[in-house]
Amino acid sequence: MEDLTGKTAWVTGSARGIGRALAIALAQRGCRVAVHFRRSQTQAQKVAARIDAVGGESLLLQSDLVDPDQVRDNLETIRKEWRRLDILINNAGDYLRRPIERVTPEVFHRYSRGALEPAVNTSLLALPLMRKRHWGRIINLGYIFADRLVGNPNVAAYHVGKTGLLAFTYSLARRAAKWGITVNMLSPGMNENTVNRPRNPEEFVPAGRLSKHRDLENAVMFLLRDESEMITGTHMKVSGGLWV
Ligand SMILES: NC(=O)c1ccc[n+]([C@@H]2O[C@H](COP(=O)([O-])OP(=O)(O)OC[C@H]3O[C@@H](n4cnc5c(N)ncnc54)[C@H](OP(=O)(O)O)[C@@H]3O)[C@@H](O)[C@H]2O)c1
To answer: Is 170 a catalytic residue?
Structure first.
């Protein structure tokens, strides 16, 4: 198991789902972890308590990440408490599956912004803190169609937001490499907590099963290694061959 003792991480949206699993996986490896929530306070408190119970160190943060001022407040707390931020996992994001003709402009903007802006706000505002140590890892949870210009009329707003996030990932990767910071997108296909669970995953997914949290943890740990410093601006898919 990787040793992340001394490092600090912020996992956005880590009260439940993939974020929760990644926060716990980092803590198990000695990393101090900022557990973050928007509305799921009780669940986030449980994640933080679980980390603390096994001798880890957690910090509880609340915000709606679409608002840059709330992100600034979160980062100020991290700076005061830890004076460093090594790892930023941009996991938070809402998902909307609805036929495009039934989506109002207001709802479209809410979900496209919700897929893009949290990661943009945290990344841009965390850069000064990350640059201090000339080492950083930013991992943006994406979507396997983010690199394909195809129509997806049932998830259009999400698709637009995540595609924008991939463009942002590439741009930031090019600039941040000189500061020792890698920026990558990590996309599950259908994960164990998917809201779109197929009736027959063994036939639907080429690998014969949905991805599990531990598959994503494995990919994250690979990207966090010192030896992965040249791996930046990539779109890594953990989908078992689904839709590649
Ligand atoms: N699960 C999958 O199969 C799958 C597939 C492809 C991509 N992904 C991507 O992987 C990531 C995690 O997915 P998941 O299914 O584990 O998600 P999830 O269970 O729906 O949890 C997402 C979390 O993000 C937080 N969040 C959303 N918008 C936020 C905002 N504006 N500000 C602050 N927090 C916000 C929510 O916080 P609160 O609950 O506190 O409000 C929520 O706990 C997402 O980016 C998703 O798009 C997942």
So the answer is: no
Contacts of 163 by beta carbon, 8 Å cutoff, 6+ apart: 145, 146, 147, 149
Where in the chain are the domains? Answer: 8-193+213-235
The correct CATH number of 8-193+213-235 out of 3.90.1150.10, 3.90.1570.10, 3.40.50.720, 3.40.50.300 is 3.40.50.720
Hey, what are 169's tokens? Answer: 């990932």
Measured CA to CA, the distance from residue 87 to residue 85 in angstroms comes to 6
Q: Are 169 and 234 in contact (CB under 8 A)?
A: no
CA distances from residue 241 to 58, 138, 186 in whole angstroms, order as listed = 35, 24, 14
Give alpha helix (H) positions in 83-180: 105-131, 156-176
**Which residue CA neighbors atom 1 of ligand 1 most closely?**
194
The pTM for the full model equals 0.98
Which residues, at least 6 apart from 12, have a Cβ–Cβ distance to it below 8 Å?
A: 19, 36, 65, 88, 89, 90, 91, 92, 118, 119, 122
pLDDT of 1 higher than 90: no
Distance 112 CA to ligand 1 centre (A): 13
At 203-214, the pLDDT tens digits run 999 999 999 999
